[in-house]
Design the sequence.
């Protein structure tokens, strides 16, 4: 009756009905709804929407078994534009609603679309609890470091000093690092991608969908109206190689272009720093850090997440953590199924009658 | 048998009172179970502090359990105890003012030490200073007699032996009222099966209490209360919370759908979560959420997926869930919100009863956001109310409030167990095919195309091919469900949602007016049923005519309510709030009802309500 062998990776889509091979391939059009997309011109959300619509056919799932649930904010309009089942809910609560849906329906592929304000401010509690429970769902967190739909207030990922409508003298709030937060919340899959890097984003979406448990994908997304250029240094081709740290499982963690490459090493005390390739080769500065997202201990992944700074000097991109742990919804369903099967099958009228009678009854007449 | 006399009584009210650690709730529960199996009708009132263990021997630490049982139908736990068992000075002091002259008081004298007396402000012992002159007092060294009775149990400490004193008291009362102790013996065997010494000691204490009654000269006679005449059937004793949980399970069974509860612990609703968590065998899924908001979010998500989503809470939890209830109104999905009301505002009186969430249930959301309200009247009625809440939720695709309260939740009464085949059929048809055509003439699904009869929209669950659709909290265009900011559409949708709730079928209000010429109607809702019925009985027995009716549906009201109200010269509305139903009635029917209110955390007394009715009758004459 147990559907999860602990320790063995099981696809997050295992119990979701797939299309038969002869049904032919779905296309982006199959996932495009008839609704007019109403984001601002130039919004990064368009790029993400196109990437998701193009990627979903790859999964080969029955469209009717895919559900997108969102909260409130610009990004949360996402479900309206996908021709799947969808719910545009209320501010911050999508992970809770998705938890109820995913737990009661093993046959659905459940996705949550949220933003930095929705997920990390008003919905922070639900986000961390979804992550620790490891409910089988994929959370796409669009991070543009600003409140867009309410027209430009600072968000929990805005930089200290950022001037916005609600912080005319500069924000004094320490921002969240969403990846660090997720790792601290016992997340089993944590990744970061750029909206503009479609190939990388698609690869991460695929891995996230296949992950059994809660997968959190932070997607840097530009708001052209209220926080334009927030990630420009990462998009600028002259700078990005020196700043983006591409995490590749089994490979040394490096930054910079060929010839100017710097390698991440760990000193005996545990601190990490980038050193020149030649220096790293001597081993004197410390051990070269080899990325392994499957490590049970999240410490290294957490340290990598801390390389990121508000100045975006070094920004790791890719999958930080990808480990297997029993999922909440599987365990909950297993308990119910075990109780039902031990009792010999679903409750009959006679079983209900016995329950209603209870133990201490007496008869009149 | 002893040679003592046996006297017959038609009814008795007993109150067990002691320190929070004295096991009074357990003692009361057991006495109730044994009384129920004897066939008496009964009603109970547990009354305990919110603190788990307030300082020992103090007034805030007093916990009590009152039981009213009779050879006829019982409507309330009784205004005043005929018998008070007081395990310490605090229990005596806290309950003394409720005792009528001539009541029997059994006190545990071992606890009447100078120190314990001082804790509750007694300068001298009330056992000696004449305070108790108007009562029949049985001073018993309960603790030391129990310890003595357990002298042979070498392996138990004195403290462990002392702890069995509640079983001694139960044994004594069982003798006094000729109750069998076999049920309690079986209960103890199950509870302490793994600890034979403790089990044997408790059984010995129970027996010692019984024998003490039979042999000591202090108790001159025992009493018999004959079984009540009740309709034929199989009966069990249930608390409101148990009946409510069973009603939800039965409703899901009769709907052929899984039950999913999303809940966050809160007094006095948590027992529903506990009860349902133990019923996985019946396909029940319970999720204890991170907060109240997540609890209802989980339930709503499950409803979207085709389950019967339920959330259980109390008033403060409803406040947190309000936004999600509004979302459910907008999504038009089935959802049951169980509010076991307690004293408010804010944390208020967590373990005491009140009916002050009616207006919160009715109006506590932004926008025009109508939600049907069902309210059970007795502990056993919680079963039927839960089934009816599910019926309304699934038939009309709407969130439904089920307003229980602390008195119903913890109180108990005999319940005639219904046959499964007699329960209403709640099967629901999910949408499974397109119900319209798009502008190109292709078949399409319109998630907000309504049933003409019920105005309910289709319930199309994910996994159904061809019916992919999006729903959300933004206003939707009529029929298509697409986002719409059109002024006329919003006006139409707002009125449609209201009309849907207004059109819900609820049974007509039944009026109890035996003579047919009463000029005063007493109209109540929820748990005031018992006290109101008892009070009207008192007034009628005094030869006066009074009519009585009780609302089980607060939104919409029964169709005949307007006529019923206008049929009487005066309508009295007793409520455990400051007049919330009265406000609704005045607004709806333009009738100046007489509001009688009390917010003491306790049910009305029969005497109090009988006085109100009599006064009203006098004013009219």
Sequence:
């Amino acid at each position: 009756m147990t559907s999860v062998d602990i320790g063995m990776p099981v696809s997050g889509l295992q119990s979701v009905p797939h299309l038969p091979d002869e049904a032919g391939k779905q296309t982006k059009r199959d996932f495009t709804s008839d609704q007019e997309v109403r984001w601002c011109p130039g919004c990064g959300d368009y790029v993400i929407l196109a990437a998701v619509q193009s990627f979903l056919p790859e999964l080969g799932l029955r469209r009717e078994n895919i559900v997108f649930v969102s909260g409130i904010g610009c990004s949360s309009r996402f479900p309206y534009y996908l021709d799947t089942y969808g719910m545009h809910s209320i501010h911050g609560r999508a992970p809770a609603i998705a938890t109820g849906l995913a737990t009661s329906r093993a046959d659905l592929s459940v996705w949550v679309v949220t933003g930095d304000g929705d997920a990390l401010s008003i919905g922070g509690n639900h986000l961390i609890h979804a992550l620790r429970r490891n409910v089988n769902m994929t959370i796409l967190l669009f991070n543009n470091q600003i409140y867009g739909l309410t027209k430009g207030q600072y968000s929990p990922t805005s930089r200290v000093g950022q001037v916005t409508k609600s912080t005319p003298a500069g924000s004094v709030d320490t921002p969240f690092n969403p990846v660090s937060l997720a790792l601290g919340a016992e997340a089993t899959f944590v990744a970061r991608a750029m909206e503009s890097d479609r190939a990388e984003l698609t690869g991460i979406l695929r891995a996230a969908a296949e992950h059994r448990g809660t997968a959190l994908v932070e997607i840097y997304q530009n708001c052209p109206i209220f926080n334009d250029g927030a990630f420009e240094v990462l998009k600028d081709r002259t700078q990005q190689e020196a700043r983006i740290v591409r995490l590749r499982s089994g490979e040394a963690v490096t930054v910079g272009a060929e010839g100017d490459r710097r390698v991440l090493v760990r000193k005996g005390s545990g601190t990490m720093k980038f050193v020149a390739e030649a220096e790293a080769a001597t081993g004197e500065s410390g051990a070269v850090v080899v990325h392994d997202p499957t490590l049970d201990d999240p410490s290294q992944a957490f340290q990598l997440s801390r390389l990121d700074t508000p100045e975006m000097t070094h920004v790791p991109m890719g999958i930080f953590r990808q480990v297997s742990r029993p999922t909440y919804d599987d365990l909950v369903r297993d308990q119910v199924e075990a109780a039902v099967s031990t009792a010999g099958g679903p409750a009959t009228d006679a079983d209900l009658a016995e329950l209603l009678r209870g133990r201490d009854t007496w008869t009149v007449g | 048998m002893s040679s003592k006399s046996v006297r017959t009584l038609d009814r008795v009210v007993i109150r067990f009172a002691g320190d929070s650690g004295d096991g009074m709730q357990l003692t009361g529960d057991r006495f109730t179970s044994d009384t129920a199996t004897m066939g008496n009708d009964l009603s109970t009132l547990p009354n305990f502090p919110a603190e788990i263990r307030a300082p020992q021997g103090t007034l805030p630490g007093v916990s009590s359990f009152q039981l009213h049982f009779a050879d006829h139908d019982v409507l309330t736990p009784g205004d005043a105890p005929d018998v008070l068992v007081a395990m310490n000075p605090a229990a005596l002091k806290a309950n003394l003012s409720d005792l009528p002259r001539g009541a029997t008081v059994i006190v545990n004298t071992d606890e009447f030490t100078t120190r314990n007396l001082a804790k509750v402000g007694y300068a001298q012992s009330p056992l000696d200073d004449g305070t108790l002159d108007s009562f029949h007092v049985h001073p018993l060294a309960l603790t030391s007699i129990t310890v003595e009775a357990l002298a042979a149990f070498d392996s138990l400490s004195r403290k462990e032996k002392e702890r069995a004193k509640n079983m001694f008291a139960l044994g004594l009362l069982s003798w006094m009222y000729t109750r069998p102790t076999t049920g309690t013996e079986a209960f103890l065997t199950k509870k302490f099966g793994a600890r034979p010494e403790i089990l044997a000691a408790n059984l010995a204490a129970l027996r010692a209490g019984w024998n003490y009654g039979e042999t000591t000269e202090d108790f001159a006679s025992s009493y018999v209360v004959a079984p009540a005449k009740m309709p034929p059937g199989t009966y069990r004793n249930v608390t409101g919370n148990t009946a409510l949980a069973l009603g939800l399970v039965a409703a899901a069974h009769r709907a052929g759908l899984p039950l999913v509860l999303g809940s966050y612990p809160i007094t006095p609703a948590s027992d529903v979560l506990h009860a349902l968590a133990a019923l996985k065998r019946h396909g029940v899924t319970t999720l204890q959420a991170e907060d109240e908001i997540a609890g209802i979010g989980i339930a709503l998500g499950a409803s979207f997926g085709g389950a019967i989503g339920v959330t259980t809470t109390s008033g403060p939890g409803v406040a947190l869930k309000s936004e999600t209830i509004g979302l459910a109104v907008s999504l038009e999905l089935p959802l049951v919100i169980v509010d076991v009301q307690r004293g408010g505002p804010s944390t208020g009186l967590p373990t005491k009863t009140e009916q002050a969430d009616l207006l919160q249930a009715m109006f506590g959301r932004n926008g025009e956001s109508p939600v049907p309200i069902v309210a059970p009247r007795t502990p056993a009625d919680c079963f039927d109310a839960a089934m009816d809440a599910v019926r309304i939720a699934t038939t009309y695709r709407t969130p439904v409030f089920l307003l229980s309260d602390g008195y119903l939740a913890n109180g108990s009464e005999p319940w005639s167990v219904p046959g499964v085949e007699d329960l209403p059929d709640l099967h629901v048809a999910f949408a499974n095919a397109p119900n319209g055509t798009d502008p190109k003439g292709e078949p399409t699904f319109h998630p907000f195309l309504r049933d003409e009869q019920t105005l309910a929209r289709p319930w199309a669950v994910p996994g159904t091919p061809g019916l992919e659709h999006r729903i959300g909290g933004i206003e939707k265009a009529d029929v298509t469900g697409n986002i719409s900011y059109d002024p006329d559409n919003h006006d139409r949708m707002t009125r449609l949602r209201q009309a849907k709730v207004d059109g819900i079928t609820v049974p007509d209000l039944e009026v109890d007016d035996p003579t047919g010429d009463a000029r005063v109607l007493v109209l109540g809702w929820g748990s005031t049923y018992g006290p109101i019925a008892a009070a009207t009985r008192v007034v009628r027995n005094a030869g006066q005519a009074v009519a009585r009716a009780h609302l089980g549906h607060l939104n919409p009201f029964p169709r005949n309510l307007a006529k019923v109200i206008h049929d009487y010269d005066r309508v009295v509305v007793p409520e455990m709030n400051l007049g919330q139903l009265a406000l609704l009635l005045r607004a709806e029917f333009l009738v100046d009802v007489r509001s009688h209110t009390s917010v003491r955390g306790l049910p009305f007394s029969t005497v109090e309500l009988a006085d109100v009715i009599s006064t009203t009758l006098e004013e009219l004459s």
